[in-house]
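MODEL INPUT / OUTPUT PAIR
PAIR INDEX: 1
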Amino acid sequence: MPEFCARGASNSQWQGLQVSKADRAARLNQTPRCIWLTGLSGSGKTTLANLLEERLFVEGRHTYMLDGDNVRHGLNSDLGFSEADRVENIRRVAETAKLMTDAGLIVLVSLISPFAAQRKRKPSSGPQINEGDRSNGLTIGLSSLQ
């Protein structure tokens, strides 16, 4: 398996697309959103995300859930739990969530985000996770990624 380094390509440009984020949202008849749940292990993030996704799905919404444990089986299977790997894990999930909201989906993210700086990322580089009610170690943030 090839080794990849975490540095940006210096010779790439953003490719303009013919179908816009607004076009995709209109086709799905919904406003794309990223609902990001953070908290301690066992605080109920995944349970809440599953229940919310089920309700949205029943209401006819187009959704997808990105769970921290699940993405570590594929997309982030090469990462451990060092500080650098945890930061990269969150960055990759944020980029994935951004692409999915660009596709018009309502994305639910359930992820341990141990570093305050990562929870406060600006929308230009991924979903912004707003510090909210921290009862039971769970934080819920909502972003439209616009």
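PAIR INDEX: 2
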Amino acid sequence: METCPHASDNVFPAAPLTGSLMIVLDLSIIFTGQPEGARTLAFGPVALSEVRNAYRLSFGGRC
């Protein structure tokens, strides 16, 4: 069985790029839902900032 010598070269960049894409999509969902959450829970700007930072720290996003 013959294997392509360069087949594994494309796998390495895919992992970090996929991880970054997941973080960006995840945070965009959080930012989209924040106004509704603020109204529902009566959070002010400081509390929203804390919620965002806690989410980023818990689920691997960058602060």
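PAIR 2 NOTE: Residues 54 and 63 are 10 Å apart (CA to CA).
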